[in-house]
Amino acid sequence: MPFSGPSSYLSTTDEFIAHWVDVNAALTPDLVLPGGTTLANMQTKRATLAADITALEGVINVMENRRTGRDIGRVAMASFINAFNRFVRGILANSTYVGELHKLPDFRAQFGHWNTAMDDTSNTWTTINASPPAGFTPPLILPSGTTLAAFNTAVAAFKTQATDLTNAEQDVVRELEEREATYLDIRDDLALYRTAVEGSFIEGHPLVLSIPRLAPLPGHTPDAVVLTMVWNPATGKADASWTASTDPDFLHYQVRRDGSAPYNTNTEQVVATFPAGTLSFSTDAGLVTPGSTMGFKVYVVLTTGNQKGSNAVSVTHPDDGPP
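Given the sequence above, the corresponding structure tokens read:
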């Protein structure tokens, strides 16, 4: 199969390497590309690409774990802020502090909104303890037993989670750039390889006719299928279903996932591959922890190497905390 996205980088490179082995067996001396690249060099580059892919997958997993940690932190923080606001409105209803309460941010709001809400809540809590309204004896302790010190500890932990996530996202960008640089170097060499093989044998030679392709054959791109996904609380998995492809060149469906918002095809990972006739699948990939969110697409892949992804669907593992 030709190169058709990151999921094909290694398999396509392997096809070229296998072909290069056959070419060397038929030539004396072995084929060396303009610029000096040999089969051994390509095998080394392939190993580097594999290592880059593994490293990228590793930092993506770290990033997804930290996104889950952030989401869990948001659930806990929302619970604290809601409880604090209810306490002030209920117990200190006649005080001026009711007007200082910060509205809870939207659950998916950027961290800056959460940072403001947490700091405002801490400041108001601190002021109440220092200057309590008439009739109230400080310190303010929530019905759950949470004190200001405990709240501030949770805030600090949440801010650390946000910083860790930012660092992980930067690691992903770095590893992605390294993977792409290695891939492009390999692709440039393999373009030279195709020309070098054609120049090393007579026209119509089997080794010329069997040179792997770098890009899909000219032709059509398949129609995208439509993906639907819902969380199944009974199984603890997301149930996916999609419309059928009727493309005559159909090869298989491929389910891929990515935790970015919006969905990022550069960092997507293959979850599973299915033959014709399979139109549903259940998975907890990236969704094991309550509060975690993952995006999914289903690709139609053709025998020509052309492919098309479905609509992206985001699924969240629900948490018992506030939405």
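The beta strands are 227-232, 237-242, 250-258, 269-274, 280-283, 293-302, 307-309, 313-316. Try to locate this feature in the token string yourself.
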